């Protein structure tokens, strides 16, 4: 996909997320890697009303090349891209169910949503929880850098998920799988759910070659 098609695609995905209530107000941001930098949704922009021509285009030093000022959460995306060469796109949301889980106490910080479904294992795998940081704290970028080589997605405590994918469609689908699994996790609290066991997860890893993703 060329840059102009990618710009259109970001706006379509933003509208879809907004229309389904997965991004409200000006929350959430979407980025895509280009041959000569990357595109990111602007600061204070609603994902439901993006303009392809006004998306922020950045270089890898963090300079704005063109477009509106980037989201203040640009550093979350940059930290993930720096550790994941194969990441072509990143979606970050404050979506309700994932954000709700991110506020729970007593989560396993290495694996904060259990493997309830095969698709969660295949699209997200083990989801680490990153401790709370105030908005804009550069230490949050460092925390992502420490985990992103081994994890395509992380959950920021009291905040929401950051999810990468080989392209925007993959990042979007993984983000939606995470949100739906967070919803299941909340629905099943107190119901003694049966997650997939180690043998079932190993079978998925082998059949779908998950370690090579
Ligand atoms: Zn955020």
List keywords for this structure.
about 210 residues, alpha+beta, 7 helices, 8 strands, binds zinc ion
**What strand line-up does the widest sheet have?**
4-3-2-1-5-8-7-6
Radius of gyration: 17 Å
Per DSSP E runs of 2 or more residues, the count of β-strands stands at 8
Strand content bin: 15-25%
Percent in helix = 25-40%
- The helix count comes to 7
Structural class: alpha+beta
Largest sheet: 8 strands, mixed
Bound molecules: zinc ion
The CA-CA distance between the termini, in Å, is 21 Å
Give the rounded overall mean pLDDT. Answer: 96
Outline type:
globular
Spell out the helices and strands N to C.
Answer: HEEEEHEHHEHEEHH
Low-confidence stretches: none
Question: Would you write up a description of this structure?
Answer:
With 213 residues, the protein is α+β, with helices and mostly antiparallel strands. The protein is built from seven helices and eight strands. The protein has helices spanning 3-19, 74-83, 96-102, 118-123, 138-148, 168-187, 198-207, and strands spanning 29-34, 37-40, 56-58, 64-66, 89-92, 129-130, 153-156, 160-165. Strands 4-3-2-1-5-8-7-6 form an eight-stranded mixed beta sheet, sandwiched between helices. Helix 2 (74-83) packs parallel to helix 5 (138-148). The chain is globular and about 50 Å long. Zinc ion binds at residues 73, 92, 94, 159-160.
Provide a short characterization of the protein structure:
The chain has 213 residues and is of the alpha+beta class.
């Amino acid at each position: 996909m060329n840059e102009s098609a990618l710009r259109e695609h970001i706006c379509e995905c933003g509208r879809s997320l907004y229309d389904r209530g997965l991004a409200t107000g000006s929350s959430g941001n979407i980025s895509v890697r280009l041959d000569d930098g990357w595109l990111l949704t602007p600061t204070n922009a609603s994902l439901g009303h993006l303009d392809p021509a006004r998306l922020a285009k950045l270089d890898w030093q963090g300079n704005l090349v063109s477009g509106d000022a980037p989201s203040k959460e640009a550093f979350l995306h940059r930290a993930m891209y720096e550790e994941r060469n194969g990441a072509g796109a990143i979606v970050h949301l404050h979506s309700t169910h994932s954000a709700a889980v991110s506020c729970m106490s007593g989560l396993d910080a290495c694996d904060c949503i259990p493997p309830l479904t095969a698709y969660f294992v295949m699209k997200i795998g083990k989801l680490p929880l990153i401790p709370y940081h105030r908005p804009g704290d550069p230490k949050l970028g460092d925390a992502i850098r420490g985990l992103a080589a081994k994890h395509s997605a992380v959950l920021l405590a009291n905040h929401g998920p950051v999810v990468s994918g080989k392209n925007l469609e993959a990042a979007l689908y993984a983000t939606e799988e995470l949100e739906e699994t967070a919803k299941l996790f909340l629905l099943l609290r107190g119901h003694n759910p049966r997650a997939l066991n180690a043998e079932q997860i190993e079978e998925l890893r082998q059949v779908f070659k998950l370690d090579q993703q």
